[in-house]
Amino acid sequence: MSTVVGYQKVILWRGQVLFSPYKQSLHFENHESVVYGSSQANNSQEVNAMFGGFFFIVIFLSIIFIVGAVLVIYYKQISEGYEDRERFVILQKVGLDKKQIKQTINKQVLTGFFLHVIFSFIHLAFAYHILNLILKVIGVVDTAMMSTVTLSICGVFALIYVLIFIITSRSYRKIVQI
Fold this sequence. Notes:
- This protein is an alpha+beta fold.
- Helix content is 72%, strand content 15%.
- It has a domain at 65-175.
- A hairpin with a 2-residue loop joins strand 2 and strand 3.
- It has helices at 40-94, 98-138, 143-175; strands at 2-5, 8-13, 16-19, 26-31, 34-39.
């Protein structure tokens, strides 16, 4: 009797594998003249396909949420810049120099931006244990790798926010004519 596992031909005789390129990694069960079989290559291909799709969805949703959050914060700061333009003109007339106004703008924009980053990291610190348990159920048991990846993602997240902070701060200064 012969059967096909994946794309490879497997020859069986009374539940024993006679020929297969994956002979060492095959597992068969014989229940009432029906033979169920799988190979390690086939299993790993299915797992890779499942995790590849899951990985794509997670990355895609992460990018969408980060872009959405950055845009909301950016436009909020820019609209506040238009509202604060007159106040900064008054501060310049009173005698506040450009360096002090620039520091004031940076503090204001910095507070608006980095509160989100700080709260995100606090949330991650409390959710890390649950996240670790969920990943262990999926099959990720290397906690050193988990913490390295988590810290790397936090670094990338913070870097993105720093870049957007610099862009927003420049736009804010242009709005108030400094």
